[in-house]
Amino acid sequence: MSGPTVPEHVRRRGLMLASISTFLAWALEYYDFLIYFSLIPYISELFFPKSNPLAALIYTLLVFAVGYFARPLGAIFFGHIGDKYGRRNALLGDAITMAAATVVIALLPTYSQIGIWAPTLLTIFRFVQGFGYGGEAGGGVVWALEFASPKWRGLVNGVLNSSMSVASLLATGLLLLVSAYYPIGVVGWRILFLSGAVVVIIGLIIRFAAPESILWERKREEGRIVKIPLATAIRRYWFSLILVILINLGLTFVFYAGYGFVTTFTKLLSSYMPELQRAFIKLTYLPLMLGSIGGIIGNTFGGYLTDLFGRRRMLIIPTAILLITIYPLYLALTTLSIPIMALSLALMYFIFTLSATVQTAYFSEIFPTEVRWSGIGFGWNLNAAIGSLAPTFALLLYTSLKGGMNPITAAALAPSIVVMIGAAMTIIGASIGPETVRKQLE
């Protein structure tokens, strides 16, 4: 936190409450993402006709993407409120939107009950949910990091980003637990979505007690709040927006076509491996649960390392390693050995999170307070809209490749190619950007 006039107890209280509530809200976002992806085989059967399973899978992935296309709109709306009227007010609004939409999705009737209205309603409320996520992605971390000391900003950022991996552990663990007592395709999927809403409601209650960002309050007192923050960000900080797009879109492709494609990957393999088909849940979700531990370590450790070695270096080196190793890591999943699969996923997630955890701290340091939320939120969520199509790109690439090679090899190669493209984008963005470690936020 910059400036000597900030009372230490106010900064600490703000950092604690903002961090906890943002951790929980981000956990819901990634929990929802992972639950949706984990349930793709079931959602495709519940909400779409069963006559064409591959088409149902593609439609299910496209509905997932619809929520992400709503995110730039949410980023513009909540980012404008956050930069102009205060961080806390905007974050209360996006948390309520996320929680309400998640509850409604959990209660939706299926295709067998109401026909075409089922996928229609699912699409509508995925859009509403994505609108709320558009405010949270970028906004929550801005609020928390504006309380953090420059010396430990990367570590605080790493702990916040570990919510993604904690959500993965929670999502896969709950899925295994719920599947042991309830049929996933009947009532289990509803329980899983409702569980995520509980998390964000707790975060919402904490958010009510948290203070406004002192940096934003200072800008308001100085009369430096701009009329249209996003327009100012685009006009004056266009290079920073380019960096956000290159780095974050690249990492979005890496995550969605890498770790996020695993359940679709194993579903494709099950057509050629009867043993996987017989034990789909065990051979898919147990390795994912164990693999998420690598992400928790990578996020926190990456946050610590970026404070020591700088933002750019920690964006470039792990991403380059993943570019080289992603294909063999995917091939390891075809062994159907739970220890080998879990180790492969843990390494994949660990390497990814070493870089991914850096980006939100870096982006906060390349924008000033008066446009920080709008600049980060718009760039981040525009990338999310495009990047959410990465699994669909991988699936379409698989359909193209499988005719000319072993289909199991094609299933591993297709997502690996998309990951490599994303990794290259991130490396380019980090290479042309400035170093910002220990920078005082303006």
From TrEMBL:
One MF term in the entry's GO annotations: transmembrane transporter activity
Residue span(s) of domain Major facilitator superfamily (MFS) profile: 18-441
Keywords: Cell membrane, Membrane, Transmembrane, Transmembrane helix, Transport
Membrane-spanning segments: 20-44, 56-78, 90-112, 124-145, 166-184, 190-210, 237-259, 279-302, 314-333, 339-363, 375-398, 410-432
Subcellular location: Cell membrane
GO CC list: plasma membrane
Main location: membrane
SUPFAM superfamilies cross-referenced by the UniProt entry: MFS general substrate transporter (SSF103473)
Membrane topology: Multi-pass membrane protein
Protein name as it appears in the record: General substrate transporter
Organism: Vulcanisaeta distributa (strain DSM 14429 / JCM 11212 / NBRC 100878 / IC-017)
